[in-house]
Please model this.
Amino acid sequence: MQLAMTARLNPKLATGVLLVIVLVTIALVRYMSSNSSHEVTWTIINVSHGDRTGDAHLLQVPNGETWLIDTGFADLAEFMLVPYLQENNITRLDKLIISHPHRNHYGGIHVLLDAGISIGELYFNAPHPIPCANEDWAMGCDLEHVLSMQEYAVQFGVPIKSLEPNLVLSTTLNEVFSFRVLYRFDGNDTPAGITSINDTSAIMRMDVGEVSVLFPGDIGQQIGEYLSINGEGLDTDLLSIPHHGVSVSAPDSFFDRASPEIGFVSGLDSLWNSDRAARIKSYFDTKNIPVYVSDKYRAIRVEINNGSYEVYTE
Model:
């Protein structure tokens, strides 16, 4: 004869077990939120050397993606940027964002691909032909070179996308992290007239909780002056100082609007301490705003989490 046995769980014990499960779940969610979803690591990789400057901003964002803003010149990307990425086991860039079409910002695209670093999306606007043609110096705007670089990326299966005003690049549903394009002008039809290619830089803003970062590319006097009067969303905690810190970049009124706590220069310390950067350096010195310059280090790392940030140098 087969006996049927029924096990009954004490109601008080069942309630206690359920409560423990709920508490553990809440704690796990909070832990994951505080240690992953709210944190961004921004690393300014030095790609300036000799008498040449460049930008490379590595972003490790809450959804687990890795982004890069700009690459520096091709040869500097080869012996400065790529080794840093490889040593940190970075083999994929989910987004590569080019602020504007000058070679010290996009020149390393093919170097990254040739090194086996895959690119999920390439945000890279071709320049308007009129302001591009106005730059006839060696490292000035070169439309043919830009188009060939885009085509090279396409051959690797990389989709080319455009940076446009109000474009939101953050893909996480977590409201703590936001990354968006505030402004981008084509250099021809702008509120400041025909401008330089530097003034076609995408002005981008990142917010992590209560901490904000502004990436204004290489904007110069014309767009910088316009934004200082008409711009919105420019106030920031951390500022990537435009155009490698040289004085032909944005006017003091732009920095007044940004009002940063700390500035970061992607460039040469010798240049930052020269007459070519005297105006901007004097502005930050007078305001007692600390400034980090990239070529004094291999990299500058900013950890942003839960409304606070820490700056480390490597």
Q: What stands out?
A: The domain at 40-313 is CATH 3.60.15.10 (Metallo-beta-lactamase; Chain A). Residues 44 and 126 are 25 Å apart (CA to CA).
